[in-house]
């Protein structure tokens, strides 16, 4: 189970964040200041730390530096102000991401997931297919000078198809890889996602097309 | 009273006195330098003629006194006696030796040599020194005859005439000045009365002045200023009532629905619905207070914002990355094409612009559609455009899009946590960067917001 350390001097925020994370299946530890945080880090196996910038005593930037440099763990900073100055100081301290209060719990979950993915597979190569360059670390698709940001499922689907260009992938394989084994959705869900992907790629490039192979699945074809 | 009237009168009097004084001094100087020798010469001629007549006269004394009565003052100095003819001189001192020289046959040029002070006109100085003298032989004896025209006799009436004229000129000028200053002072008093009314908060009055001169221009400018002030005042009142309404409504909802939640016989469905409403309303309040703070900080700083050079491309990329989860969870895609660009401006304020444009685009996008963002870096300016494939706006909606608290659709906005402030922030931030914010839209097809920021 993934363990996350929440460091914030406000008890309500600690509680709110930990409840949110627990409901999504994370194990959480709480600390109200940097010293507590360090003692938790020493005792428990933490995977990621969420750190508030404004704390009495040692501030969030200093703690971030300690967590990233001494423990080699990813950090997400919580900041009350969206000021550029704060952000830069945060990135200098080594934070992987920052999030501005007030935030939606869903947003925090999304960020944590993204940061953890990056840490799990630190060196995923970019995929190239036709004009597409697919950066799986940042969920970014580049076509020439333009970039395309896709909904996550569509991105995963495209990345999967692009990883084996010109080869047919079966419907079951695609559904399992993108939605997981427990997926109980409609058969049509995949069709809809494929249709949308085609619509979104069409105005940007003709170098790749997603072909339907009847009765089997789909194939990303690189043209020319 | 230090009114303009008294000032005008005072200044007129001062100007008149000053011009009189200067005129006098100039005339005097002219007399001293140019006219004196001439007067002296003319009078010398007359004196010589009178002397020659007197010499040939049977009764010189009679002759001289007759001559004097035609407008001269005479002084005859003989070896035994001296006598005056005509009106007396004011000053009778004349050096002995000068008299003696004339008796001895020379002429005396007192008029030419008479030196008077700056404030005394030599012409009018009724003194014996200020005369001409000629030798004359009467009854075989050498005499000296001194002559000076009797100015008083000759010019008395002229004096009175000129005096009266001067008095009339002064009085008429002062009256005219009063009248004229009335013409100037009257509209100024009107303007002043109008300002007093405006001070009390009434912006409907206008000064009733219709003139073509500078005061007319002032009055017209004043009128348009009143209109502008009235407009600002109206906006401010609207703003305040809007703000309090916009704060009160969510508070009312939060209070109401949290009370409803206390009731024990609620279904799970109702509970979830009420909680969602409370969440949405707190979000609205949070956004609203943040935006108001931003607006007021923009207004405080006026046009003096802190500019710093920063990587605007990176700022936009980070902004999009931050919204990726929302775009993704709405099932939207986003394409962007960014030129490399650094810009000198206020990064924090511009961040608010991108936030507002992107949340707006997300809010109004149709399901499964795309948002397109571009950054173009040109020689003179940077252009950022955000295009959605959403519901679009009508002409009327576009024209009011950047107004404070304007929402394209009141009913729909209630569900999309709009505050009606976002686009007015966009506009004000671009304005203080000297740029423009524009919108173009086709109803049903989508909307493009274009921000142009000039390079410094």
Automatic annotation (TrEMBL), chain A:
Please list the residues that carry the modification 4-aspartylphosphate.
52
Q: Which keywords does this chain's UniProt record carry? A: Activator, Cytoplasm, DNA-binding, Phosphoprotein, Transcription, Transcription regulation, Two-component regulatory system, Virulence
Cross-referenced Pfam families = Response_reg, Trans_reg_C
Which residues are the signal sequence here?
A: none
Locations listed in the record: Cytoplasm
- PANTHER family recorded for this chain? HEME RESPONSE REGULATOR HSSR (PTHR48111:SF49), REGULATOR OF RPOS (PTHR48111)
Q: What does this protein do?
A: Member of the two-component regulatory system HssS/HssR involved in intracellular heme homeostasis and tempering of staphylococcal virulence. Phosphorylated HssR binds to a direct repeat sequence within hrtAB promoter and activates the expression of hrtAB, an efflux pump, in response to extracellular heme, hemin, hemoglobin or blood.
**What protein name applies here?**
Heme response regulator HssR
Species name: Salimicrobium humidisoli
From TrEMBL, chain B:
Which GO molecular function terms does the record list?
Answer: kinase activity
Does the record carry Transferase as a key word? yes
Q: Tell me, in one coarse class, where this protein mainly resides.
A: membrane
Keyword check for Transmembrane helix? yes
- Gene3D superfamilies, sorted: 1.10.287.130, 6.10.340.10, Histidine kinase-like ATPase, C-terminal domain
Q: InterPro entries recorded for this chain?
A: HAMP_dom, HATPase_C_sf, HATPase_dom, His_kinase_dom, HisK_dim/P_dom, HisK_dim/P_sf, HssS/ArlS-like, Sig_transdc_His_kin-like_C
Q: Which SMART domains match?
A: HAMP (SM00304), HATPase_c (SM00387), HisKA (SM00388)
Q: Which UniProt keywords apply?
A: ATP-binding, Cell membrane, Kinase, Membrane, Nucleotide-binding, Phosphoprotein, Transferase, Transmembrane, Transmembrane helix, Two-component regulatory system, Virulence
The UniProt entry lists membrane topology as: Multi-pass membrane protein
Q: In which compartments does the protein localize?
A: Cell membrane
Question: Which EC class, in a word?
Answer: transferase
Q: Enumerate the spans annotated as HAMP domain.
A: 182-234
Q: Where are the transmembrane segments?
A: 9-31, 160-185
Q: One matching Pfam family, short form?
A: HisKA
Q: Which residues form the Histidine kinase domain?
A: 242-456
Q: What are the EC numbers?
A: 2.7.13.3
User: What reaction(s) does this enzyme catalyze?
Assistant: ATP + protein L-histidine = ADP + protein N-phospho-L-histidine
Could you tell me what this protein does? Member of the two-component regulatory system HssS/HssR involved in intracellular heme homeostasis and tempering of staphylococcal virulence. HssS functions as a heme sensor histidine kinase which is autophosphorylated at a histidine residue and transfers its phosphate group to an aspartate residue of HssR. HssR/HssS activates the expression of hrtAB, an efflux pump, in response to extracellular heme, hemin, hemoglobin or blood.
Kindly provide the name given to this protein in its UniProt entry. Answer: Heme sensor protein HssS
What organism is recorded for this protein? Salimicrobium humidisoli
């Amino acid at each position: 189970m993934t363990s996350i350390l929440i460091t914030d001097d406000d008890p309500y925020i600690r509680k709110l964040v930990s409840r949110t994370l627990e409901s999504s299946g994370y194990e959480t530890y709480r600390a109200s200041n940097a010293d507590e945080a360090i003692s938790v880090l020493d005792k428990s196996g933490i995977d990621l730390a969420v750190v508030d910038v404004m704390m009495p005593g040692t501030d969030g930037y200093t703690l971030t530096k300690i967590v990233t440099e001494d423990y080699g763990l990813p950090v997400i900073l919580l900041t009350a102000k969206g000021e550029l100055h704060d952000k830069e100081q945060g990135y200098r301290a080594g934070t992987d991401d920052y999030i501005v209060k007030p935030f939606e719990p869903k947003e925090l979950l999304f960020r944590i997931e993204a940061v953890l993915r990056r840490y799990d597979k630190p060196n995923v190569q970019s995929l190239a297919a036709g004009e597409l360059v697919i950066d799986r670390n940042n969920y970014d698709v580049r076509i020439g000078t333009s970039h395309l940001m896709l909904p996550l499922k569509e991105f995963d689907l495209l990345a999967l198809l692009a990883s084996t260009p010109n080869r047919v992938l079966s419907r079951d394989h695609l559904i399992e890889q993108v939605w997981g084994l427990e997926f109980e959705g409609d058969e049509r869900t995949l069709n809809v996602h494929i249709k949308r992907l085609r619509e979104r790629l069409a105005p940007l490039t003709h170098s790749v097309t997603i072909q339907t192979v009847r009765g089997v699945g789909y194939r990303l074809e690189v043209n020319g | 009273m230090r009114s303009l009237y008294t000032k005008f009168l005072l200044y007129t009097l001062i100007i008149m006195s000053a011009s009189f004084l200067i005129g006098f001094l100039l005339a005097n100087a002219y007399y001293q330098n140019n006219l004196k020798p001439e007067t002296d010469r003319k009078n010398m001629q007359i004196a010589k003629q009178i002397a020659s007549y007197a010499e040939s006269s049977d009764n010189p004394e009679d002759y001289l006194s007759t001559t004097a009565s035609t407008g001269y003052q005479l002084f005859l100095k003989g070896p035994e006696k001296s006598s005056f003819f005509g009106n007396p001189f004011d000053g009778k001192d004349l050096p002995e030796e000068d008299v003696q020289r004339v008796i001895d046959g020379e002429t005396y040029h007192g008029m030419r040599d008479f030196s008077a002070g700056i404030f005394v006109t030599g012409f009018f100085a009724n003194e014996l020194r200020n005369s001409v003298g000629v030798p004359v032989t009467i009854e075989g004896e050498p005499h000296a005859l001194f002559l000076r025209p009797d100015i008083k006799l000759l010019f008395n009436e002229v004096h009175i005439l000129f005096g009266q004229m001067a008095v009339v000129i002064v009085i008429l000028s002062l009256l005219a000045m009063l009248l004229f200053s009335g013409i100037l002072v009257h509209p100024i008093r009107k303007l002043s009365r109008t300002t007093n009314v405006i001070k009390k908060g009434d912006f409907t009055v206008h000064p009733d002045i219709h003139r073509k001169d500078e005061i007319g221009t002032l009055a017209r400018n004043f009128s348009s200023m009143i209109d502008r002030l009235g407009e600002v005042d109206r906006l401010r009142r609207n703003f305040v009532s809007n703000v309090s309404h916009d704060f009160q409504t969510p508070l009312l909802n939060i209070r109401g629905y949290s009370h409803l939640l206390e009731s024990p016989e609620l279904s799970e469905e109702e509970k979830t619905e009420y909680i969602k409403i409370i969440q949405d309303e707190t979000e609205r309040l949070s956004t609203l207070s943040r935006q108001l703070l931003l607006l007021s900080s923009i207004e405080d700083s006026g046009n003096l914002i802190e500019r710093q050079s920063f990587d605007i491309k990176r700022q936009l990329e980070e902004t999009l990355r931050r919204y990726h989860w929302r775009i993704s969870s709405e099932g939207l895609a986003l394409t962007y094409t960014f030129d490399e660009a650094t810009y000198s401006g206020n990064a924090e304020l511009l961040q608010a612009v991108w936030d507002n444009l992107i949340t707006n685009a997300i809010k109004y996008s149709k399901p499964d559609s795309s948002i397109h963002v571009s950054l173009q870096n040109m020689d003179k300016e940077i252009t950022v455009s955000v295009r959605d494939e959403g519901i679009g706006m009508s002409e009327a909606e576009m024209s009011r899009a950047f107004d404070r608290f304007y929402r394209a659709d009141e009913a729909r906005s209630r569900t999309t946590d709009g505050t009606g402030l976002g686009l007015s922030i966009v506009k004000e931030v671009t304005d203080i960067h000297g740029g423009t914010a524009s919108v173009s839209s086709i109803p049903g097809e989508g909307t493009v917001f274009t921000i142009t920021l000039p390079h410094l």
